[in-house]
Amino acid sequence: MTLFRLDSSIRLEGSISRAVADTSEAAWRAEHPTGEVIRRDLGVAPLPSDAWATAAFAGWTPVDQQTAAQRDAVALSAQLGDELLAADSYLFGVPLYNWGISQHMKTWIDLVIADPRFGAGSETPLAGRSGLLVIARGGAYGEGTPKFGWDHSTAYLTRVIGEVWGLDLRIVEAELTLADIVPAMSDLKPLAAEFLATAHAAAATHGRTFGEQAAAMASV
Ligand SMILES: Cc1cc2nc3c(=O)[nH]c(=O)nc-3n(C[C@H](O)[C@H](O)[C@H](O)COP(=O)(O)O)c2cc1C
Fold first, then answer.
1. Concatenated DSSP letters for 130-190?
2. End-to-end CA distance of the chain
3. What pLDDT sits at residue 123?
4. Minimum CA distance residue for ligand 1 atom 27
5. What is the pLDDT along the chain (220 residues), one digit of tens a residue?
6. Cα(44)–Cα(125) distance, rounded to whole angstroms?
7. CA 98 to centroid of ligand 1, rounded, Å
8. What does the radius of gyration of the chain's CA atoms come to, in whole angstroms?
9. What is the value of pTM for the model shown?
10. Phi, psi (deg, nearest 5) at residue 5
11. Ligand 1 atom showing the smallest separation from residue 174 Cα
């Protein structure tokens, strides 16, 4: 059993998305003590932001005419594709930044899509596999809140990872994560704590479940 785990928080200390993903990974690990984890940490080691454009056009250039930079970008894109294809369960930790996804996350997605196995014409390359998307948001974005509709990240991620790549994707959301550090949000601390506890519990459940799903698929 192999778990692919991607983190994208730009902080290591106090990261909620990492902590909730840790909970899910621990639940998966309990089910699969000898399982392998493939890690990609975009917060610690961002991908070069110009690699996507280079890889995208390299596809139009005959291999023997490609520059060294094009070959490197294509190799990076293929490596990212390999990492995804080598797994049977998936865990993504993604904070909301500036009402959308970070440039780090977008570069990763664009480079994966530059791999022909994931790009236009490919058919849901991860179909039938299960994954969990852990979202961390400083504020609240639910219906009735002033910023309802301002999260431009979650729908995009679900579209690409769930629909285009075909993962059976579950979502766990931790909201109001800034309540502990922003004085103006201090009244919201109890609600934030409630959201966080719910997120950890759901992450543990999903970690166990997608482990079970992968095991069932492997035994077919
Ligand atoms: C540069 C930056 C931009 C952010 N933009 C938003 C935002 O647009 N909306 C929001 O609700 N929270 C925003 N936040 C707060 C993060 O979403 C929140 O702190 C989240 O918990 C970060 O994930 P982490 O805890 O895994 O690091 C931002 C944080 C940073 C550092």
1. EEEEEEE-SS--STTSTTTT---SHHHHIIIIIIIS--EEEEEEE--GGGGT-GGGGGGHH
2. 14
3. 87
4. 15
5. 999 999 999 999 999 999 999 999 999 999 999 999 999 999 999 999 999 999 999 988 999 999 999 999 999 999 999 999 999 999 999 999 999 999 999 999 999 999 999 988 888 999 989 999 999 999 999 999 999 999 999 999 999 999 999 999 999 999 999 999 999 999 999 999 999 999 999 999 999 987 676 666 666 5
6. 27
7. 7
8. 18
9. 0.95
10. -125, 125
11. 21
**Residue 162 near residue 169, CB atoms below 8 Å:** yes
Residue 93's CB: how many other CB atoms inside 10 A? 29
The structural domain count of the chain equals 1
| Residue having the nearest C-alpha atom to atom 18 of ligand 1 | 138
From 12, 44, 97, the mutation candidate for ligand 1 (largest count of ligand atoms within 8 A of CB) is 97
Residues in contact with ligand 1 by the CB-under-6-Å rule are 9, 11, 15-18, 95-99, 136-139, 177-178
The three-class DSSP label of residue 111 is helix
Q: Which residue owns the Cα nearest ligand 1 atom 28?
A: 97
Q: Which two tokens stand for residue 33?
A: 């003590």
- State the pLDDT at residue 122: 86
Task: Please report, for the domain that includes residue 98, its CATH number.
Answer: 3.40.50.360
Q: Give the structural domain span for 194.
A: 2-219
Distance from residue 5's CA to the centre of ligand 1 (Å): 20
